[in-house]
Every structure is written in C-alpha cells, then in structure tokens.
Amino acid sequence: MNLHALRIFAEVAKCGSVTRSAENLLISQPAVTAQIRNLEKEIDLKLITANGRSIQLTEAGEILAVYSKQLFTLETKIEEEMQNIRNGVKGKLRICATDLPGSTVLPKWLVKFKKAYPMVDVQFSKGSSQTAYQRLQDHAVQLAFICGEAKEEEGIEYFTLLEDELIFIVPNNHHYNGKEISLEKMMKEPFILREQGSYTRKKLFSLCNASGIDMPLSQIGIEGMKESIEAVKAGYGAALVPALAVENELIKGELGRVNIKDLFIKHPIKLCKRKQDEPLSTATNFISFIKAELNL
C-alpha cells in the first residue's frame, strides 16, 4: 500500500474536506484528489464520496481511517523513541568499576545522572581492574572506571578524572598520628594487609623492595578495602589506603594519618572506553555529565 497516499487519505478523513486537507499538506487540491483515486484503485474500494462541499467516508473509508490513524500514531511514537535513543535520553548505560570509584564517587554521580535522565536504564557492577578491562573489551559495558597505574590494554583509551593518592592511616590515638616519619619506621608498626592481588598490597611490597625495607612482622590479612579501614578504626596497626576512601573518617577524626618523608603515591581514578568506538549517546552524556561535575 502506498503510504504517501494513505497519509493524504488520513488527513482528508480527519478534516472531512479535500480543500482543507490540501491547505494543511501544502499541496494542490487536484493532487490530493489524485492520490485518493490512486489509493482507491490500489485497494479496489471506494473510500470517499462527495457530500456538498465536504466529503463522506464510505464503510471501507471509515475502517481504513481508523487503522491509518493507528499506523501514523505508531510512526510518530517510533520517531520519538529513535530520537530519544539518538540523544541519549533513553537507552542503556552499562558500567563496571573497581572498588574505590565504585564505592565513593560513582554512586552519587549515577544518582544525579539518573535524575537528569530518568528513562536511561543504568546497570553498574564492580570488579577488579582486569574484570573491568575484560568486560569493556567484550562489549559487556560501555565504560569502566579503574584506579592506580593503568597498564596499557590494546584497544582501550584512558582519561584521568581525579588525582587521588595512597596514604598511611592509623587509629586516631596512634602515637604517629599527624606526624612525618620515614617509611622504615612505618614498617615497624603492626599492619593490616589486603588480600593477594590487591593493588595497595602490591604497591606496599614494591615500596619496601625498592627501599630495601622488610615488611612488618605483625600483620593481619583482610580481604576488602572497607574491612581493612574498619580494622584500623577498631584500633589495630596501620594500613595503606586511597585517601578518597577515608576522607570522611579523617575529617571526623575517626582515623589518623601518618605522612611519610619524601613520599607521595599517586593513585588516579581513570575513565576507560574502547578506542575507535564511538560510545552510545547514553555513555557520551554520562561522560559529559561527570566532566561538568568535576569542572573538567
């Protein structure tokens, strides 16, 4: 069926007049009449009859008018949906993040973003850096957020969002709280160590090896950043943690910080996406939203 002719017929059926339909469609009256006649020939049914200066729909015309209205209403809905997806107003946003960004900055960013884009379906998962890279490469997520020194992965590009650092924390009543000491002195304190494979554990071992210093003799091995921080708050030893993870505790005085002489450990939070792969509009909008939040 000729959809152009059907569209003209639908306008005639709505207006009840060939003349008004022609004016609305910005075409000539004879052109409207010709399209109606072509449609009637195509379906082999009479659709309209003259009724003075207006027109009268036949039984077939009345039925076709109902279906054509439904059809073009659906067409409008489809166009709106496609436009929403094209603009990132609607669609999917899939994100994977490591523990630090996943438990600190991302939740509040996602909540604000969801309020601004309520029709976007947001799914957020956490995992190791390798998990985040793999999900990104497998197209399971559009964006990944990692921290620390990112190793170059083929097909992935990085953008630094925040410049965090790794710091040594102690209980708030610890004798080194607020002081600057050497790394060697720090390593003589009891320590909370993260699990095997943890970035902070690897970094601590690397620092000690580079300085020729032994690791602390008294240790507690704890899996999880939050659990390690809670152990220090409970009064045991020290730990190497991201500053962002203990920002509130330090402000409230629930934890202490020890500064290490001539040592600053960068721990940036980075946004990762696939190279040569234009992200979906939802991801593009989220990136722009974050940059606006951070004044980047």
Automatic annotation (TrEMBL):
Instruction: Give the Gene Ontology MF terms in alphabetical order.
Output: DNA binding
Recorded protein name is DNA-binding transcriptional LysR family regulator
Taxonomically, what lineage is the organism? Answer: Bacteria, Bacillati, Bacillota, Bacilli, Bacillales
The record's listing under PANTHER family reads: HTH-TYPE TRANSCRIPTIONAL REGULATOR (PTHR30126), HTH-TYPE TRANSCRIPTIONAL REGULATOR GLTR (PTHR30126:SF40)
Top-rank lineage group of the source organism: Bacteria
Task: State the Pfam families in the record.
Answer: HTH_1, LysR_substrate
Annotated keywords:
DNA-binding, Transcription, Transcription regulation
Report if keyword Transcription regulation is assigned.
yes
The residues covered by the HTH lysR-type domain are 1-58
Q: Which family does it belong to?
A: Belongs to the LysR transcriptional regulatory family.
What species was this sequence derived from? Answer: Metabacillus niabensis
Gene3D superfamilies associated with the record: Periplasmic binding protein-like II, Winged helix-like DNA-binding domain superfamily/Winged helix DNA-binding domain
